[in-house]
Structures are given as C-alpha cells and as structure tokens.
Recover the amino acids of this structure.
C-alpha cells in the first residue's frame, strides 16, 4: 500500500469518526436546546393565558358587582366568553373552560390547559402545563361570619425547642389578637360575628343543648365491676422494669412495663375490689353514621349522638356559635383546654354548622343568600398534626382505624368550599408531608394556606389572615 493511499484511508476514517462524534454530541445537547426553545414558547403562551384570565376576572367581577345574586354558571359564562376571545389566535394551546370559585367577595378563576412541545417531544416530553389562576375582589362586604376551627388535641401541649411557651398558649394569643382585629378594630357599621370550634377527636356542643331535637343523648350508665390486679409491690419485688417509647397524639413519651417470670406472674395472688363505674354526658358528641357524617341537615332522620364518658376529659372544650360579642369569644379562647387525639373532620363539619341556617346552630341566612346581600362566611382552620383517629361506619370513633380520616377530611373541605364558604388553613409545626399537602388542598387557594413552626410564625399567620379578611370588611384606619 502506498503512503498516499494510507493517508487517504486515514482521512476518510477520521471523517466517519467525527460524524459519529458530532451525532453523539448533538444527541447530548438536544434536550437542552429543546428545553430552551420550548420553554421560550411556553413563557409566551403562559403570559397570554395569564393576561386573558386577568381580563376575564375583571369582567366577571364587574358582572357580579352588578348582579350579586348571579349563579356560578352565569359568572363562568361571562368569564369564558372574554377569556376565549382574548386567546383567540394566540397560537396552538389546548385550554379547558375557565372555572370560578366564589368565596365571599372574591372570585378565584382557574383554567387547565397545556402547550404541545416541539423538540422536547424527542425526549418523551409531549406537553407543558398552562394551568393558571387569577383572583379579584368585587366589593366590600357589609357583614361577615367567621368560624375559628382550632386543634386542641394533646400535641398542642408541646413547647417546641427554642420557644418560651406551649403551642396552645401561642394559639390562644394568636386567636385573641384576631378577634380584636376583626371585631374590635373594625368599622362599627360592619356586622362581624365570630364563633369558636375547639376540636380533638370529638367536639363539645355544650351541656345546655341536652334535649334539643337534633341531639340524642343516651341515658347515664352505671354498673359494678370487680377490679382484680396484681399489687404494685409484687412487681417491684419480683420483676424488672423496662421502658419503651410511646406517644399520645404524636407526642413522644416514655412508657414502662414489667419483665417477669410468666409462671410466677401467673401464680401471683391478685387483689380484688368492687368498683362502681359511672358514664354520663359532658357535652361531647360523636359523628353520625357514614351516610350523614359529613353533611349538615337531615337531623330528623338521624340525630347527632351524644358520647358518654367517665370523666370530663374525653373531648374538646365547649364550642361557641357565631356571636357579635368579642368579649365572649375571647373568654372561650382563653379557657380552651388540651384533650385527646386528632380527627380534623369533626372540627370542620361543626365549623360549617355554625355558618348555615340549618340546626344545630342556625344563622339567619344561607351562604349563597348571605353572599348575594354582600356578606362573607369564612372558616379559619388551625391544626398541628395528622389525623390519628377516625370513625367506623356507625360513627363510633375508633382507637386504631385511621383509614377514612384523610378521605373524610378532603370530602368535608370540598363540601364546604362548594357551598361558597372560604377556608383559610394554618399548619402549625406539621412535619408529615402528606398531612401538609392534605391541609393545603383543604384551603380555598394557595394564598389561603399558611405554615408556621414557631410562636412568632403562628401569630404572624393569624395576623396575615386577619389582614386579608380585614381588608374585605373595612378595617378602621
């Protein structure tokens, strides 16, 4: 082989290798190039969608301000007509109809959609989401009804590291300050009422409601019981003490047990006494059965069952229906005590029941009628942790079955929002991601959801909520 021929073959080999190297490099940078190209298109489309939705929200707000009795369907028609006109000819986008949530004197508009990609399809990314939200206030309410739904379960006894007071003390301060902001400092011409629903596993409706036609309180139960047990002194003399971790409503604690010889323990002589056990009603109520648990109504068909207990420590402090007396509201907040474990739907459904014209605590107007007259109805939910209990199908709260707790929470939150009640949520020192997501989903919008992990942050969240509500009800000054 001649020298020139060898050089020619080498050159051709180099060209083939270079082509393959270039192709490989191109495949490597193609996703980045595709992202830049498609993301630029996405930003352009997203801007157009946001602008169109903003114009649609203004049109919807103007329509509602002139037609306070407008239905949701009518408002959505106005919003969609303008939105579709604005995005016409704006490039290919697959957009769904605009949805409108009416909460007090606010409209929250949101629309689902997507933009097909071009180059990024080569990397199996076929589309990019164009989900967009817009919110607008269309008037100043002439009246407001607000229910504070406050978690007072055992975990609220915790004093977190670096904090000078317990969670429940921080909550009392934050809630009282909110009452001052929304009831004392507000323009006196605005009718503002507030109610309090402390909750743990159950809610306390107050013993004064015994005999009401929506409530079924069982007769007291008294029975004798022989209590036989091996004396403590025997365990101390014959066994070794063993400690292990345990918790109450997520609060870590130390529990102990005795390690004994099983045969000796079996042969130990017990001491027996006759005890009288008395179960009575202290105001606590159970959920109704599965069919009626998460609704407000049909009390003639199925009453709310009272819960009997041996002592007045089985559920939260008594609740208070919405009233116009701030001193009365603050007194109840100051007296809230910490009890038992957590079932969030109990608090939410009772908070909702304080805002409707149905028994047990009827208000003068239904939610929609109240809104049509320029009013707002709001729930402020505060919880510091996950559901730890849930009811069985018959309504009885179980000690270990929490499988229905989160679905029930989602269901009651959606029912309340669908009715037109606005929900604010504060997640206080919630470490569990699933619980945080559950609480955020419960809120009426992302701007209605707050997290806090210190006393100052909790009080700051309540202050922010009070300001948001307060702007709507004409704070003095």
């Amino acid at each position: 082989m001649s020298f020139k021929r060898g050089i020619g073959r080498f050159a051709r080999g180099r060209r083939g290798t270079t082509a393959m190297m270039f192709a490989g490099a191109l495949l490597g940078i193609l996703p980045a190039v595709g992202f830049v190209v498609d993301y630029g298109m996405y930003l352009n489309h997203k801007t157009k969608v946001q602008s169109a939705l903003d114009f649609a929200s203004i049109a919807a707000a103007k329509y509602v301000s002139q037609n306070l009795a407008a239905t949701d369907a009518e408002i959505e028609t106005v919003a969609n007509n303008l939105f579709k006109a604005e995005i016409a000819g704006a490039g290919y986008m697959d957009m769904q109809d605009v949805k409108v949530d009416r909460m007090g004197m606010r409209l929250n508009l949101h629309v689902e959609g997507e933009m097909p990609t071009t180059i990024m399809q080569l990397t199996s990314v076929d589309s990019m989401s164009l989900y967009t939200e817009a919110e607008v206030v269309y008037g100043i309410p002439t009246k407001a009804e607000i229910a504070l739904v406050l978690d007072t379960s055992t975990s609220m006894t915790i004093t977190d590291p670096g904090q000078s007071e317990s969670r429940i003390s921080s909550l009392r301060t934050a809630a009282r300050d909110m009452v001052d902001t929304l009831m004392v400092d507000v323009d006196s011409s605005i009718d503002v009422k507030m109610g309090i629903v402390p909750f743990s596993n159950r809610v306390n409706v107050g013993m004064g409601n015994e005999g009401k036609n929506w409530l079924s309180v069982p007769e007291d139960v008294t029975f004798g019981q022989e209590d036989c047990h091996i004396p403590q002194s025997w365990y101390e003399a014959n066994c070794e003490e063993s400690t292990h971790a345990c918790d109450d409503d997520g609060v870590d604690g130390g529990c102990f047990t005795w390690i004994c010889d099983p045969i000796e323990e079996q042969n130990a002589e017990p001491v027996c006494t006759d005890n009288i056990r008395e179960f009575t009603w202290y105001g606590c109520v159970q959920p109704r059965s599965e069919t009626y648990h998460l609704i407000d109504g049909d009390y003639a068909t199925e009453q709310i069952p009272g819960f009997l207990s041996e002592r007045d420590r089985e559920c939260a402090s008594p609740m208070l229906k919405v009233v116009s007396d701030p001193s009365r509201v603050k007194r109840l907040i100051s007296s809230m005590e910490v009890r038992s474990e957590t079932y969030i739907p109990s608090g939410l459904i009772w908070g909702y029941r304080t805002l409707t014209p149905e028994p047990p605590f009827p208000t003068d107007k239904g939610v929609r009628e109240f809104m049509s007259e320029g009013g707002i109805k709001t729930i402020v939910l505060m919880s510091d942790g996950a559901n730890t209990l849930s009811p069985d199908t018959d309504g009885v709260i179980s000690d270990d079955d929490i499988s229905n707790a989160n679905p029930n929470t989602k269901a009651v939150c959606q029912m309340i929002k669908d009715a037109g009640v606005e929900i604010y949520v504060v997640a206080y020192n919630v470490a569990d991601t699933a619980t945080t997501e559950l609480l955020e989903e419960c809120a009426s919008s992302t701007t209605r959801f707050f997290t806090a992990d210190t006393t100052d942050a909790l009080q700051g969240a309540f202050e922010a909520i009070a300001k948001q509500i307060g702007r709507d009800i004409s704070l003095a000054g």
The longest helix spans residues 3-66. Confidence is low (pLDDT under 50) at residues 1-15, 21-27, 472-477. The CA atoms of residues 379 and 423 lie 5 Å apart. The first strand starts at residue 94 and ends at 95.
